[in-house]
Design goal:
- The complex is a heterodimer of chains A (113) and B (114).
- Chain A contains no helices and 12 strands.
- Chain A has strands spanning 3-6, 11-14, 19-21, 23-26, 33-38, 44-50, 56-59, 62-65, 75-77, 86-93, 101-103, 107-112.
- In chain A, the strands form 3 sheets. In chain A, strands 2, 5, 6, 10, 11 and 12 form a 6-stranded mixed β-sheet that branches. A 4-stranded antiparallel β-sheet of chain A has the order 3-9-8-7, with no helix packed on it. Chain A has a two-stranded antiparallel sheet with strand order 1-4.
- Chain B has 114 residues and is mainly β.
- Helix content of chain B is 0%, strand content 54%.
- Chain B is built from no helices and 11 strands.
- Chain B is globular, with a radius of gyration of 13 Å.
- Classes of the chains: A mainly beta (113), B mainly beta (114).
Chain lengths: 113, 114
């Protein structure tokens, strides 16, 4: 079945450091891929998405490229800020439809000044 | 757009009591999902509806849990009787089927059962 594996956290970085959060997936066909972010006390919200192979999703300085050959969708940001401290979830919609989504376990990021 | 609205934001109750969580999805969305989030188990899908019809409730942990969607703008998740292990944050999310539509989450209900 469809699955998502993302790196364990927590990740602690200093402000302005480079961020990579790894995500790999197993899926039938070529689904869209998503990154969601959850700030403290809030629900998950879409950060970025890519709908086909080699697409790059980007938002708020974050980027992720849909790599079919490595079945990966790693999240990157060149210079993190304290305000980026949150939990990040990689996700893909299941092939069965109805927009049922498989989420990774989440990676907590803490950025220190 | 008001987003997905959940109520209450916080609920504290005693073991054995009935708990009802409420959700108003985004207008025009035809799929609705209930999730539970805990430190131990992460984010779990409990049940989802399409056009007000329950499609898959295999994630509902026990018969103590039930969910309804009487119309396109309202859903409830009920726990009766509640137990301390039900303590978690419960999220409702909605979306439109087809295409590449993401889920839109509410801010959750933090349930504490003592």
């Amino acid at each position: 079945g469809d699955s998502v594996t993302q790196m364990e956290g927590p990740v602690t970085l200093s402000e302005e450091a480079f961020l990579t959060i790894n995500c790999t997936y197993t899926a039938t066909g070529y689904p869209s891929l998503f990154w969601y972010v959850q700030y403290p006390g809030e629900g998950l919200q879409l950060l970025l998405k890519a709908t086909k192979a080699d697409d790059k999703g980007s938002n708020k300085g974050f980027e992720a490229t849909y790599r079919k050959e490595t079945t990966s969708f790693h999240l990157e940001k060149g210079s993190v800020q304290v305000s980026d401290s949150a939990v990040y979830f990689c996700a893909l919609p299941n092939s069965g439809g109805y927009q049922k989504v498989t989420f990774g376990t989440g990676t907590k990021l803490q950025v220190i000044p | 757009d008001a987003g997905v609205i959940q109520s209450p934001r916080h609920e504290v109750t005693e073991m054995g009591q009935e708990v009802t969580l409420r959700c108003k999805p985004i207008s025009g969305h035809n799929s609705l999902f209930w999730y539970r989030q805990t430190m131990m188990r992460g984010l779990e899908l409990l049940i989802y509806f399409n056009n007000n019809v329950p499609i898959d409730d295999s994630g509902m942990p026990e018969d103590r849990f039930s969910a309804k969607m009487p119309n396109a703008s309202f859903s409830t998740l009920k726990i009766q009787p509640s137990e301390p292990r039900d303590s978690a944050v419960y999220f409702c999310a909605s979306t439109t089927t087809g295409g590449h539509s993401p889920l839109h989450f509410g801010n959750g209900t933090r349930l504490t059962v003592t």
